[in-house]
Amino acid sequence: MNTFTGTASLVRFDLRRDRIKLPLWVIGISALAAYFVAALQLAYPVAEDLRGVAGFADNPAGVMMSGPGYGMDDPTLEAFVANQYGLYLLVAAAFMNILLVVRHTRGEEENGRTELVLAGAVGRRAPLTAALATAVVANAALVVAGSAAMTAAGADAGGAVLFTAGFAALGLFFAALTALVCQVCEHGRTATGLAAAALGTAFVVRGVGDVLERHGSAVSWLSPVAWSQQTRAFVDP
Prior knowledge:
Blueprint lengths: L6 H11 L3 H23 L3 H11 L2 H6 L11 H8 L1 H19 L1 H5 L2 H6 L7 H27 L4 H28 L3 H25 L11 H6 L8
Helix pairs in contact: 1-9, 2-6, 2-9, 6-9, 6-10, 6-11, 9-10, 10-11
């Protein structure tokens, strides 16, 4: 037996336990992304209306709370969604991964289930590896469901895939960070709080960096949130 023995079985077990929670997260984020596309088509059917609204977002407060402003000079519907609402979808994807990893690592240890699992033919690194593999599955599902939903709502298919891939990339970053935090925290609530604090810090650093210089500065790149936004989905992929 090696340290990863039983990982595949634990992945199946984790997915079965989350057969309701994970689909709700994935469907919820995907539906919200599609809703933004569909709702804006109804709210701003004329390009002039969209340009007028985009002008209000092109100020320090708007940049801090939304994004670096790619495509806001002459916005398309998709670019407006990516810049104005993408940040909130990114945060939701990050939280999905934080809660998932805490639930399947530190949470399992707190309730004693990990000790029972490790007493069987399971390697020492299998539980953590299975939790991260489950996160990979969840984020892959988010890309597929999210891009399909946005495309069905009228968004460009290629841009939708890149846009939702940004969710998955940020989600996997915070899955990995949370896995590390769970190794040094005694309680699940502490691990969740520290990971959420890291997400909040990334949010603020991204905002400050984008305010310092139009379309982002060197400070922006210190935040993983900015990495996803810098893909410039629907504008300059």
